[in-house]
Structure formats: C-alpha cells, structure tokens
Design brief:
The chain has 129 residues and is α+β, with helices and mostly antiparallel strands. The protein has one domain. 47% of the residues lie in helices and 12% in strands. The protein has a three-stranded antiparallel β-sheet, covered by helices on one side. Strand 2 and strand 3 form a beta hairpin.
Length: 129
C-alpha cells in the first residue's frame, strides 16, 4: 500500500514518521478503528471478514474500553492482542502495528513474517482445543 499526502491526513501516517500537529487532538471514533483494522487485516489477505473468519483482527468493546482481538476458530473464539484501553490508545496500537507491517512489506520481509505468525497462531489455537 502506497501512502500519499491525502491518505496521510486520514490514516494517521505522517511525513517523516512524525504526527502532524492537527492530528494530535482529533477525536478517535469507531470509524478510525475500523479503517486501521481494514489495513491490518489486508496485510494478512483478509479483505471482507465475517464475524467467524479465522485469523482476522477485530476490536471488542466492554467495561468502558476497547481492545484488539484475533479470531482463532470458526466458532468465533478470540485471543487478546492488546490490553483494554481507550479508543485513542487502541488506535495508536493499531497504527503502530500497521506501520511496522508496512515497513516489512516495503522491505519484502512481510511474506515470511506473516506466514510464520499465522502458522504460530493456528498451532496455538489447535493446542487450546
């Protein structure tokens, strides 16, 4: 995925890896989280996930906060990826993950990384069954 100046303003990516001043206090909404989730799931080849699509990432909301989760079985079972926090905290975690994956992708290292991560997640899911 190539990032241009229009995308940088809406996605949180910034020139020179520094946040633009106007984005620092922007209210983070569910729409922001969903956008970052689409990018994250896209790195793993998941573009239109259903609620039970194994391997896709989602954000759950409970107890006044939210957290990143990953679906690990066809019954909708999840594993926690992050701690529970505010929408802004979770947004920044998603954005950071996406930045790392984008760098790996640009250096042609993502394919090996993604394959091993998915294989590890599937092996862990099978152990829990």
């Amino acid at each position: 995925m190539r990032i241009n100046s229009a995308t940088a303003k809406t996605s949180g990516y910034a020139e020179g890896n520094q946040l633009r001043e106007e984005n620092l206090m922007e209210r983070i909404t569910i729409r922001h989280l969903e956008y970052q989730l689409r990018i994250l799931n896209g790195h793993f080849g998941i573009y239109e996930p259903e609620w039970d699509t194994v391997g896709h990432f989602t954000v759950s909301f409970a107890y006044g906060g939210c957290q990143i989760e990953r679906i690990i079985n066809s019954g909708g079972g999840v594993t926690d990826i992050s701690f529970r926090g505010t929408k802004r905290e979770v947004y920044e975690q998603l954005r950071s993950i996406n930045n790392v994956l984008r760098e790996l992708e640009m250096n042609d290292e993502l394919e090996d990384f993604g394959t091993s991560v998915i294989a590890d997640a599937m092996a862990e899911a099978e152990k829990q069954l």
